[in-house]
Amino acid sequence: MKVNFNKIPLSGREVEYIKDAIASGHLQGDGHFLKKCEKSMREITGAKAALATTSCTSALDMAALLCDIKPGDEVIIPTFTFVSSVNSFVLRGAKPVFCDIRSDTLNIDETKIPRLITERTKAVVPVHYAGVACEMDEILKLAKKSGIKVVEDAAQGFCAYYRGRHLGTIGEMGALSFHGTKNVIAGECGALLCNDESLTDRANFIREKGTNRIHFVEGKIDKYTWVDYGSSYIPSELVTAFLCAQLEIAHKLTADRIAAWNYYFDRLRPAERTGCLRLACIPTECRHNAHIFFILPEDEKTTKSLSDFLKSREISTAQHYAPLHLCPMAKKLGCKIEPLPVAEKAAKTMLRLPIYSSITPDEQDWVVESIGSFFGIDL
Ligand SMILES: Cc1ncc(COP(=O)(O)O)c(C=O)c1O
């Protein structure tokens, strides 16, 4: 049986809404669907302000501008993350300071942050890997003590919570992704959540090419002008029309993924007990969104052989990030390269299994039984 790694979810209303957007004759980014999406995002996340953006990368670019990052500032980032978590800050001249991750959640190891803080540290970027929250209480405490900003990379964190608070709403700002591979999608799209209301005006200026066009649209001024840094970060109505249809079923998509995640977890627990692999740990304060289901075999060779074996059975799996501190760009930037062993091991051994909202128990059984066959255990 062929099992895809991912299948995009559809609510069935995407095309209808895109047709509505076209019929309205208004396709640029400040129309009906943008407003509707942002209202829905505020309701789901509880954020004070939610600004839809062309991607999570754009939202992180905006966050770096809002943090007033200047050349020479330092930003603490987990090494096990996507390039956008770091590039947005590097583009403003920041020096990335890479932190190792925890072996249970693969999130930034909060105990390793204090020794990385210097008088030049401007921000810390907790990345909520797989939609499981970082240890935010500790990170907020450290940030407050050192006077640094917290920008949450919640690209994978839509509809996920830490102590009841939606991811991306805990630090000063948070960035969400609605990329085609995420739980709730619009192809290429994202959002910036501003939890400090004093940032919202500036965020709107930055999103609209550094102009105060928002005040013009709201009828507050007759003419808009150049008031800040900025770029083209607002998504078109075609994109937000699609996203609107997805946001309507966000909770259902999450519930379906959670059911699939739990099914894998229960069925793979016996494999974990034999010691042939480890499963993710979800801390009790986290309500995750089942964005990723990963397993951790003991070594790189086993992971590679398992992935080849599953491929021979038409089951697609994937590893994930190359640790950023080992990438060519980190060397080019002259970053301090010291071993970050937990991330380096996770990058070599971690394997993501197929998961999507419409995955069937038959497909999951085939994946689980195949893993059992590989290890010679009856699952
Ligand atoms: C942790 C993380 N941050 C940022 C991004 C960038 O998201 P986008 O593709 O919406 O720009 C991704 C994308 O996968 C991601 O995984």
Bound molecules: pyridoxal-5'-phosphate
Based on CA inertia axes, which overall geometry fits?
globular
Could you give a short account of the major beta sheet? Answer: 7 strands, mixed
Order of helices and strands: HHEHEHEEHEEEEEHHHHEEEHHHEH
User: What is the CATH architecture assignment of the largest domain?
Assistant: 3-Layer(aba) Sandwich
Estimated share of beta-strand residues: 5-15%
- Could you tell me the CATH topology label of the largest domain: Aspartate Aminotransferase, domain 2
CATH homology-level superfamily of the largest domain: Type I PLP-dependent aspartate aminotransferase-like (Major domain)
| Number of E-state strands | 13
Poorly predicted runs are none
How much helical structure, as a percent, in the residues?
25-40%
Arrangement of strands in the largest sheet: 1-9-8-5-4-2-3
How would you state the average pLDDT, rounded? 97
Radius of gyration: 21 Å
Distance between the termini: 17 Å
Instruction: Give the tally of structural domains.
Output: 2
Q: Structural class of the secondary structure composition?
A: alpha/beta
Number of helices: 13
Can you walk through the features of this model?
This protein is of the alpha/beta class. It has two domains: 14-249, Aspartate Aminotransferase, domain 2, CATH 3.40.640.10; 251-375, Aspartate Aminotransferase, domain 1, CATH 3.90.1150.10. Helix content is 39%, strand content 14%. It is built from 13 helices and 13 strands. It has a seven-stranded mixed sheet with strand order 1-9-8-5-4-2-3, sandwiched between helices. Strand 4, helix 5 and strand 5 form a beta-alpha-beta unit. Helix 2 runs parallel beside helix 8 (237-247) and helix 9 runs parallel beside helix 13 (361-375). The chain is globular. The two termini are 17 Å apart. Pyridoxal-5'-phosphate binds next to helix 3 and helix 4. Pyridoxal-5'-phosphate is lined by residues 55-57, 81-82, 84-85, 127, 153, 155-156, 177, 179, 190.
